[in-house]
Design goal:
- The protein is built from 14 helices and twelve strands.
- It has helices spanning 23-30, 43-56, 67-78, 92-95, 100-105, 122-128, 155-167, 179-186, 190-193, 220-232, 241-253, 258-275, 296-305, 326-338; strands at 11-12, 60-64, 83-88, 108-112, 138-145, 171-176, 199-203, 214-218, 278-280, 286-290, 308-309, 315-319.
- β9 (278-280) and β10 form a beta hairpin.
- The longest helix is centred in the C-terminal third of the chain and has 18 residues, at 258-275.
- The termini are far apart.
- The structure holds pyridoxal-5'-phosphate.
Length: 346
C-alpha cells in the first residue's frame, strides 16, 4: 500500500509538506540498515550525511528531525548568549519558529525588512551591524532563506551579500528548506546554489516528499557544536536510518521532478488569472492569489465540497507538489472556474 489515498481531500494545496511517501520511498525505508544514531552507529544516516556534505561542498553534515530544530541548532552553534543575528522580517527563522533563537538560545534577533525579491538590502544590513561597544549585542550572523515565499534569491545578490557580511566579520546561515527548488529553477549545481554560506539547513520533507528530516551542512567544528545542541534540543534520534532512507531516496528520485511542480504552479497561475483573479507570478512551487474578502468563506466550502484543501485568505497561498500532478491541478482550476465570483471580480 502506498498510503497516498488516505486523506479526506484528494487535492491538498496547503503546503508541499503534505506529501505522503511513495511506494518506492516506503520500500527504501523498510529495507534501511539501521543502528543507534546517537552513538553515530546508523549507516544510513551516516550515508545521507556524507552525501549531503559532498553534494553541497561542506566538510560535515548532521541529520535532524525537522527544519525548525536544524535552524535553531545552527543559530545556537553560530551565536552565543547575548549575541545577535540579522534576519528578514518574513524569514521562517524569525517569524514562524516561535522566536526559538531568543527563547531557547538567548540570541537576539535583529529583524530587517525584506525587499520584494526576498533579499535584504546591503545598506540596511550595514546600518544594523552594531559597533563593538558594550551597550550593544554582538552582531554575529546573517540568516537568509532560499526560496523565500517561493522566490529565488538572485545569485548575484547572494554572492555580494555574503562577501559583504564576511568582510564585516559576520557568519552566514541559509535556511534552505526549499533550496532544491531554487537550484532546479536556476539550473545550477548544489555547490553553486549555496556558495557564500557557512551553513545551510536543507529540508527533505518539503518538495522532496520525505515524511521528515532536515540535513544541516557546515564545517567540521560547526557541525560538532550543532551536534551538541541537537542533543540538548531533544533531536538525538536512535534508529533514524528509517527516515534517512526516505531522504536518500528523495535526493536520488525527487529533485529534478521539482520542475514539474514549478510548471504546475505556472499553469495554475495562468488559469486563475483567466478567471479574473490577481495572481503574483510564481517563480517556483508557491503562488499567491488575492481572494476578495466577501468570497472567502464561500470559496473555502466550495473547494472543500470538491475534495480540495486550501488555506483560503485575502492573499491565498497555493503550493504545488508531488501529490498534485497536472490532472489534479486541472481539477482544482475547474473548481475555481465553477465558483460564483459574481460581484467580486471584473
Ligand atoms: C522556509 C522554511 N524553513 C523552515 C521550516 C521548518 O521546517 P519544519 O516544519 O520541518 O520544522 C519551514 C516549514 O515549513 C519552512 O517553510
Amino acid at each position: 500500500m502506498d498510503g497516498s489515498h488516505t486523506s479526506a481531500f484528494a487535492i491538498d494545496l496547503r503546503s508541499d509538506t503534505v506529501t505522503r511517501p511513495t511506494a518506492g520511498m516506503r520500500a527504501a525505508m523498510a529495507a534501511a540498515e539501521v543502528g543507534d544514531d546517537v552513538y553515530g552507529d546508523d549507516p544510513t544516516v551516516n550515508r545521507l550525511q556524507a552525501i549531503a556534505a559532498e553534494r553541497f561542498g561542506f566538510e560535515s553534515a548532521l541529520f535532524f528531525p525537522s527544519g525548525t530544530q536544524s535552524n535553531l541548532a545552527a543559530l545556537m552553534a553560530h551565536c552565543g548568549r547575548g549575541d545577535e543575528f540579522l534576519v528578514g522580517q518574513e524569514a521562517h527563522t524569525y517569524k514562524y519558529e516561535q522566536g526559538g533563537a531568543a527563547v531557547l538560545g538567548s540570541i537576539q534577533p535583529q529583524p530587517l525588512e525584506n525587499e520584494p525579491d526576498g533579499g535584504i538590502a546591503l545598506p540596511r544590513i550595514a546600518a544594523a551591524i552594531k559597533p563593538d561597544d558594550y551597550h550593544f549585542a554582538r552582531t554575529r550572523l546573517l540568516a537568509l532563506e532560499n526560496t523565500i515565499g517561493g522566490r529565488v534569491l538572485p545569485m548575484g545578490y547572494q554572492r555580494e551579500v555574503t562577501a559583504f557580511v564576511h568582510s564585516r566579520g559576520l557568519a552566514t546561515h541559509l535556511d534552505g528548506a526549499r533550496i532544491f527548488n531554487a537550484i532546479v529553477k536556476l539550473n545550477v549545481d548544489e555547490r553553486t546554489g549555496v556558495a557564500g554560506f557557512d551553513s545551510v539547513s536543507i529540508c527533505l520533507s518539503k518538495g522532496l516528499g520525505a515524511p521528515a528530516g532536515t540535513v544541516l551542512v557546515g564545517s567540521r567544528d560547526f557541525i560538532a557544536a550543532a551536534r551538541r545542541w541537537r542533543k540538548a534540543l531533544g533531536g538525538g534520534m536512535r534508529q533514524a536510518g528509517v527516515l534517512a532512507a526516505a531522504g536518500l531516496y528523495a535526493l536520488q528520485n525527487h529533485v529534478q521532478r521539482l520542475a514539474d511542480d514549478h510548471a504546475n504552479a505556472e499553469y495554475l497561475a495562468a488559469g486563475l488569472r483567466a478567471v479574473g483573479l490577481s495572481v503574483v507570478a510564481p517563480q517556483t512551487n508557491i503562488l499567491y492569489v488575492d481572494i476578495p474578502v466577501p468570497k472567502i468563506p464561500g470559496l473555502k466550502s466550495h473547494l472543500q465540497g470538491r475534495g480540495i484543501n486550501a488555506t483560503v485568505s485575502p492573499r491565498t497561498r497555493l503550493v504545488t507538489h508531488l501529490d498534485v500532478p497536472h490532472p489534479k491541478i486541472a481539477t482544482a482550476l475547474q473548481a475555481f472556474r465553477e465558483f460564483d465570483w459574481a460581484d467580486s471580480i471584473g
